[in-house]
Amino acid sequence: MTKMIMIVDDEPDTVDLVKLVLETEGYEI
Question: Can you give the chain as a three-state secondary structure string?
């Protein structure tokens, strides 16, 4: 991962995974 995203969340790993999946599917975040 080249992106350094600071996220304050109970489950940041889950958020990163969801974003990765969405980006892979072609969605813009």
Answer: CCCCCCCCCCCHHHHHHHHHHHHHCCCCC
